[in-house]
Amino acid sequence: MTTWTALTTLPGEAAASALGAALELMKPAPSGLGIFEVEDGSGLWEVGGYFTSKPDPAALALLAAAFDAKPFAVSKLDDRDWVAEVRRELSPVEAGRFTVHGGHDAHRVGPHRLGLRIEAAMAFGTGHHGTTRGCLILLSRLMQRGVKARRVADIGCGTGVLAMAAARAWRVPVVATDLDAVAARTARANAGENGLAPWVRTGCAAGFGHPVMRRWAPFDLVFANILERPLMQLAPTMAMHLRNGGSAIVSGIMEHQVAGVDAVYRGHGLVREDWVRLGQWRSLLLRKRA
User: Fold this and answer.
1) DSSP state for residue 52 in the 8-state scheme
2) How far apart are CA 164 and CA 105, in angstroms?
3) What is the pLDDT of residue 20?
4) Strands (E), the chain
5) Residue 272: CB atoms within 10 Å
6) What number is the average pLDDT over the span 204-210?
7) Closest by Cα among 60, 254, 231 to 156
8) Strand order of the sheet with strand 93-95?
9) What percent of the chain has pLDDT over 90?
10) Residue 288 bridge partners (DSSP)
């Protein structure tokens, strides 16, 4: 099947999300949509639509103008099996004790590794991104120290990799939520595919806003692999939902943002114990003072 892509960039996550929502209302409508931060520190976000019929150039021009985005770049893709292409390029990722892999690479998980299966069609959140890998490395370091969390939360769970990692490691209840309903459903499906459905509870919510979060708090460990600003906004409620002596693993932070995030969390009683640097990304391990 022939596919067309229409890609643009604009500053800010909120504006990118609004443009994405408007793009979905086009005629013909896109068969798929992607919204990602451009990883160069520019603050730009990429919005892309994938169409099985050629998109209307006039409609795209109007949308770009309305949201102050760059003009859409439209490309026609060859008739190829794109999932197969991604599978060939996405080799298993090892991060600490964990190996994140597609089903086609299950045989490559070593006997003493903790495997997490994420399919290539769900490429964002497979563990290839530095922020996810950093979180998995910090989780592995906690495990090496003999820490065993009894209750875990994953804020902005995406495909559910971090939630599944905690459930795989400790077989304990993990609550995983995301603002995006599709992400929450994807995390639920992935937990099922990995045999972790009994331990992973998912929901669509911002931060700790889902009722199941209130029922299971306080948590021994909280993941928040999001971005600097929402991380800083999350600090007060993070402190409220984390038990004394509990840990938080936060990521989505660049080098120049670490001091600001540190200061905000320190003001709410969470101090940095460890960190991981992978490329331009930093992942932090914080502990709530007892």
Assistant:
1) S
2) 18
3) 87
4) 3-11, 32-37, 44-51, 73-77, 93-95, 98-101, 114-117, 152-155, 174-178, 200-204, 219-225, 242-254, 270-278, 281-288
5) 16
6) 88
7) 231
8) 93-95, 98-101, 114-117
9) 50
10) 270
| Residue 123 reports pLDDT greater than 60 | no
Tokens read off for 136:
């998995």
Placement of tokens 């979180």 in the chain: 135
Q: How far is CA 66 from CA 4, 37, 60, 134, in A?
A: 22, 20, 10, 37
* Letter string b/e over residues 201-233, b meaning 16 or more CB atoms within 10 A of that residue's CB: bbbebebbebebbeebbebbbbbbbbbbebbbe
In this prediction, residues 196-201 reach a mean pLDDT of 95
Answer whether the bond into residue 198 is a cis peptide, omega within 30°.
Answer: no
Beta strands 3-11 and 174-178 are: unpaired
Please tell me the predicted confidence (pLDDT) of residue 124: 44
> In the sheet that 32-37 helps form, which strands lie side by side, from edge to edge?
32-37, 44-51, 3-11, 73-77
Q: What is the mean pLDDT of residues 170-183?
A: 90
Is pLDDT of 89 > 50?
no
CB atoms within 10 A of CB 133: 24
